[in-house]
Each structure stands twice: as C-alpha cells, then as structure tokens.
C-alpha cells in the first residue's frame, strides 16, 4: 500500500517528512543569506575597523559615544557591539563599564536644568512615575536595590537617567545600582559583537568556525540571553509587587 493510499498514520509520516524538508531548505537559505551579508558587508567593515582605526582611538570613541549618547536620548547598544567586536570580553567590558559610568552620571546632574520638563513628562506617564518613586524612598540600600531592579526592568534607559535626577535619590546608590542593573544588557551586547566577529572570521575559515570557536561563542551568547531575560522578568515582577503595596493615586508633587 502506498503512502498516499495508506492509513492516517502514513499521511502524518509523509507530512512530517515534507515539514522536515521545508525546514532544511529554510535553514539552508538562511545560512546562505547570512554568509552573503557577512562576507559582503560585515567582514569588510570589521577589516577596515581593525586596520584603519587605532585601537586607542577606537576605545576613546566608544567611551565618548557611551558617555554622550544618553544625554541626547540615543541608544548605546551599537557602541557596546563594536566594543565586543574590536576588544573582546575583558577589555571590551572595561571600556563599556567606563562608558556606562559616565553615561549615567552626566544626565543625573544635567537633569536638574530640565526639572520642569521632566516632571511634566512623568505627570503624563503616571505608571512610569510610580516606578521612579520606588527608588526615591528609604535608606542607601533600599535606593540601591530599587535602582538596580528598575535598571533590569524594561524601562526606557535614557529617560530613566533624567527621571532619577528629579527625585530625592542620592547619587551613590543611583550610580552603583545603575552599574549593577546594566550588567546583563552589557554582557549580552558584548557577546553579540563577539559572536558577530566570530561568524565573520569563520567565512574565511569554516573549519575554525565549526569545530573550535563557534560552539563556545553561541553557548556564551545564549547564557547571557537567558540571564538577561530572567533578570528582566524577575525585576518586572518585583516592581509590580511593590507597586501594589503602595498607596494608590499619590500626587507627583508630594513625591518630588
């Protein structure tokens, strides 16, 4: 009896074979496209970055961009990717950590110049304002823990820098909490750059890509991804719990 004329089980098995074939074709096409993009665009850019830009100048550019971008509400993730691509784990981490340190410090002090505008924004976004209020109460440890949790949560990073500046939170717990809360995103961005560099190197040496570096890089990237996701979920759940405990409908003017 043929597969087309057989029982329902035969049809199911035939459908499974077809699905597997379609999946293999999809993966093959994806790999071809990825290889083309990496070979034609990413690899030339990385080669130019390695040969044309002095490493010390590049490190300074990354530090400068991560220090200044938060002031104008621009994301710093591309700078962290480049740090991972160009400098790897250790040096890249130190450069990014230095950049984040300055990137959270400058808006904190500059924000006092735009106090009315920031308060107006928070009044229009009461849910975000209630989250910010969690960090402005209590002692040093409470403020540090609250800032860390808020940094881990899916709150707009650049806006958060300015929002903290109009609260009663002290600089030191804000600074330390911002650094600790930024670590998962920092590691994930660095690993993204490192993995991209590994894939670009592998286009010229497939054996190296397949057997030596890529399994470790992918494992590291996936570990960072899981940690970042788990930290975000934990922070969001904790903040929601704390918000439910707070008394509702408090005026912003009483808090700031």
From TrEMBL:
It comes from the Eukaryota. This is Uncharacterized protein. It comes from Melastoma candidum.
